[in-house]
Recover the amino acids of this structure.
């Protein structure tokens, strides 16, 4: 499921930039196939992060994901010599996806994980090392 469209990209970054970045044939017009591939790649990248936490496809596309998909697709459209502002926006989008995957940020949608696997829930403390010298049995009730 695509998280963004050509119209979303054009609204965010301008028709001229999207045309320049997608016009590999030099026709002077936006190539919808090139844009569709960048958007599909962006959606696949987003799905890779979300699949462990959410049931896909999502019932609705939250606005955060439209913004993230646009940032990733834009980055993918720049084949080489990516401007710093484009790279930084992409890296910010990836960090947000990582936070979504960890569960420190949510989409406001039901998570796919059962309650015992939710972050911070149902986790027992691990013990390592030797057994304690003084346990309940050895202290005589004190």
């Amino acid at each position: 499921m695509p998280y963004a469209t050509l119209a979303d990209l054009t609204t965010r970054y301008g028709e001229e930039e999207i045309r320049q970045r997608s016009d590999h044939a030099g026709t002077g017009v936006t190539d919808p196939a090139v844009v569709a591939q960048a958007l599909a790649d962006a959606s696949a990248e987003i799905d890779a992060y979300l699949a462990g936490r959410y049931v896909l496809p999502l019932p609705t596309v939250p606005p955060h994901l439209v913004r993230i998909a646009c940032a990733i697709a834009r980055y993918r459209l720049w084949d080489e010599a990516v401007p710093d502002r484009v790279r930084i926006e992409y890296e910010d989008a990836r960090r947000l996806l990582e936070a979504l995957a960890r569960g420190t940020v949510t989409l406001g949608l039901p998570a796919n994980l059962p309650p015992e696997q939710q972050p911070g829930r149902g986790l027992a403390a691990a013990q390592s090392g030797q057994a304690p010298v003084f346990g309940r049995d050895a202290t005589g009730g004190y």
Remarks:
- Helices lie at 6-13, 15-22, 32-50, 63-77, 84-102.
- Residues 115-126 have pLDDT under 50 and may be disordered.
- Residues 32-50 form the longest helix (19 residues).
